[in-house]
Design brief:
CATH superfamily of the largest domain: HUPs
Strand order of the largest sheet: 1-2-3
Oligomer: single chain
Structural class: mainly alpha
Number of strands: 5
Bound molecules: tryptophan
Order of helices and strands: EHEHHEHHHHHEHEHHHHH
Mean pLDDT: 94
Shape: elongated
Radius of gyration: 22 Å
Largest sheet: 3 strands, parallel
């Protein structure tokens, strides 16, 4: 059966955008019985946060708590830190020697950086340039085949595929060629209606929000600004509250809300109460579990996860060593 692997960079607070975009999918894949590996891409976070490593260390706890509170079971699949697995860096070194610089140069994350004069100067480093090569090593070292990611990562997975293919040709190996597994839900906007939910913008709902602050944030969300009043029809396609309904409310309720808003049968206030209620039903049990997990539980989970992941990464590395005769 295909092995599934995905990683997230621990670079700040975990929020419901992560939940809807990736974590929900991770939980569903694990429940489907597939063999899964989940890891914190802390080396990938390092090339952007070299001056602020505390953020990586702190968010490690937040991410693991969030994953488990959302339903991942660390007893079934290893949850580990990339930096606990030296074989990742060893394979990265081999992959770097197989990758022409032009391939990394084509990666959209590097191109965005080069073409954006406002991009952080901290990213001006070879580690960031080679970012997708390390990503290829993350995947290949566990023999990952399907990789659940957001749309922004597809080009990286394609590059990983090229690298693995080249490795296989060069050494007559048969590492699985990875494929991106796109999540079903598009990006969740921020509570301000901006295209992206991000802690640095301050438009997030966190995964362990309290009930009170959850409803408060929902009440402040942007609605259709063309709607004159409750007695006039609104346009759900121009409404942040509706975007969140699509992510958190049952589909029959979503269609009903769409119709009643267009027919001026539902006020924005009522609609926000409904959303707050539906989000509460999903998020409060998560917040409760989140708050029950201690930092020391996380440390245990990560060391246990590293131990389990190493069984696979060590075996893959032994094969690679004998193939490359290095
Ligand atoms: N680059 C991914 C991100 O920023 C994180 C990541 C690192 C990853 N290595 C990976 C994702 C391997 C999937 C597979 O979100």
């Amino acid at each position: 059966m295909d092995t599934i692997l995905t990683g997230m960079r621990p670079t700040g607070a975990l929020h419901v955008g992560h939940y809807v975009g990736v974590i929900r999918n991770m939980v569903a894949l694990q429940k489907s019985g597939a063999e899964c590996y989940f890891f914190l891409a802390d080396w990938h976070a390092y090339n952007a946060l070299i001056d602020n490593v505390d953020v990586i260390t702190k968010s490690r706890y937040e991410y693991v708590k969030g994953w488990i509170a959302a339903g991942l079971d660390p007893k079934i699949s290893p949850i580990y830190r990339q930096s606990d697995i030296p074989e990742v860096l060893m394979l990265n070194q081999i992959f770097q020697c197989l990758t022409p610089p032009g391939w990394a140069d084509r990666s959209p994350s590097w191109k965005d950086f080069i073409n954006n004069p406002n991009a952080s100067r901290l990213l001006d480093n070879v580690g960031f340039f080679a970012y997708p090569i390390l990503q290829a090593a993350d995947i290949a070292i566990v023999k990952g085949k399907r990789v659940p990611v957001g749309a922004d990562q597809v080009a990286h997975i394609e590059l990983a595929r090229e690298i693995v293919r080249k490795f296989n040709r060069q050494y007559k190996a048969n590492l699985p060629e990875p494929e991106a597994l796109l999540t079903t839900f598009p990006k969740l906007p921020g509570t301000d209606g901006g295209t992206k939910m991000s802690s640095s913008i301050g438009n997030v709902i966190s995964l362990n929000e309290t009930e009170k602050s959850l409803q408060k944030k929902v009440n402040k969300m942007k609605t259709d600004d063309q709607r004159g009043g409750v007695e006039q029809p609104g346009n759900p396609d121009n409404c942040t509250v509706y975007d969140f309904h699509k992510a958190f409310s049952p589909s029959n309720e979503v269609s009903l809300i769409n119709e009643s808003c267009r027919a001026a049968g539902l006020s924005c206030g009522e609609c926000k109460m409904k959303l707050g209620g539906n989000m509460k039903d999903i998020l409060m049990p998560i917040a409760e579990r989140f708050n029950q997990i201690s930092d020391s539980d996380v440390n245990d989970i990560l060391s246990d996860g590293a131990r389990k992941a190493k069984v696979r990464t060590h075996a893959t590395w032994e094969e690679i060593k004998s193939l490359t005769k290095f």
